Task: structure prediction
Amino acid sequence: MQTLLQQIVNGLVLGSLYALVALGYTMVYGLLQLFNFAHGELFMTGAYFALFALTAVGATTVGPVIVVVGALLLAFIAAGLGSALLGTATERFAYRPIANAPRIAALISVLGVSIVLQNAVMLIAGRRNKTFPQLISDGKVVIAGVQITYTQIFIIAFSVLLMLSLLYFVKRTVFGMSIRAVAENRDAARLMGINVMRVIQLVFLIGPALGGMAGVMFGMYYGTIFFTMGFVIGIKAFTAAVVGGIGSIEGAVLGGLLLGLLESIGAGYLPALSFGLLGSEYRDIFTFVVLISVLVFKPEGILGTRKYGKKRL
Amino acid sequence: MKGLTALKPVRFAAYALFAVVLLALPSVLGSNYLTRVAVTCGIYICLSLGLNIVVGFCGLLDLGYVAFYAIGAYTYALLASPQFGIHLPWLAVLPLCALVPAFFGVLLGTPTLRLRGDYLAIVTLGFGEIVRLFILNMDSVTNGPKGIANIDTVEILGVSFNTPTRYYYLVLFFALVFVIAISRLGRSRVGRAWGAIREDEVAAKAMGLNTHSLKLRAFAMGASFAGIAGLLFAGFQTFVSPESFTFGESIIIFCMITLGGMGSIPGAILGSVVLVVLPEVLRPVADYRYLLYGFLLIIVMTMRPQGLWPSKQRRRELTERSEP
Result:
């Protein structure tokens, strides 16, 4: 029981990260029906931007409260801005020139961006794993025998804050309304005087910013970052977006949390489930099995609309 | 559409010259190193021709293509090496190396080919990783990250292909068979149906084509071509390990057909030769290889989506503006 509760906590933390990244996928997909391959890499660059910023000011150890807050602010602003900038560049140079070409062209082009980003980071920061500085003291709270570190509490709280702000932004502001309008029907939105290109730019800015910040949290949580980390997280977050219902913001959050829980709880039972054939080193396979099953049995996801899940015929 | 008899004399002369050059290549190149590069070119040509069926002809974005290459290579490696002490003759393994990957292709394709194209991309990408993870972790069967060494050298009816020059002719033979098979396939009823699916799936369906079965066929056929390329690779290296079958490899093959021109056979050949020879020339800057490939994909897609040597039809599709 205690182990299970502990795994639930770990799963929620992991799930929050997936959810934040999944938001970026789902927004771009809702708008353009494009799977943005580069998004996973923007998660990774976020972590590296934060690392560079923190190293530059020498904030690599836990200090008094004011220093902690300063370091966190610096890390998240650097990551958010840096990744948002790269996201905008992706839109400008890899998507916009071929916005009207068949979708396979755009898909290959953003795949190119993903390869470029990954290798650029490798060449700049090196192949080896980088230690991510500890930003929050490693204390923990123990509730009913379940250990929750301060970092975990911070990650969950901050993710919730980010997600709520995004929801507010999309549901309550005029910008958000234009995003929803373009997702609903691009031509009608254009006729209503919405600048569709601006909306696309906006989405390529917000999604990567959230993804980049998730990258920082990944670094804080695991203590190391590496240039290939965007690849697996990207696939998982995409799975989360599909599970929740691609195109739906609440769905991405739900899917992310579900996938995190499933992975954290399920990996422990994998040997038992597969009659000892598969150890927990196969945990990544879980994601793919989930992805394929959802795509086969309920392609619109939990909260999605038929519009995206079904093949557009 | 044109038979050999309809070839104009100039064209015929060009083909003849090309054939002589290909046959004489090992002696022209002289060194074993250069011949090995030529063999590698040939193996990649086989691979990219296979992917060309899936991506170029049928318009399915398969990012886990290397999985089928790996399955083919490991099929040979397991059935003709000291790993289990099995030493089947090469000709007996050949059909298996085509059938086993095709089987996996059908297995993966049946549930996923009903989905939209970009879902397929992510699922195939996942499949590629799953296959690699299994090869990496199933120590008892695949020997894990250490790989399988001392694979039997290729021997067909008493002739041993144990030197790069001999192997060159073997690969050349397969590449030629592939080129002929695929160009005929592209013009066949099935090939034209694939083109219809690529251009407009709804219309193709409305015309009574069984799109799912056709896509499955493209997938399976691409997989068997990859499997045979894997067989050629394993027999050439006499060693296989999971390292040769990463996502990066899928990307390289993908770049080859994108650069050359999707759906174009000369394009796939040109792309393969360029991307095999280029890294050999650029050895001093080997670290920048993938960075260049990434830029290559972006630049080709945004500037010249039809590739260097496009097929006429594909060029029209990719350059004319479609849905807004």
User: Anything to note?
Assistant: Confidence is low (pLDDT under 50) at residues 308-313 of chain A. Chain A has one domain: 2-309. Chain A touches chain B through 50 residues (CB under 8 Å). The two ends of chain A are 48 Å apart (CA to CA).
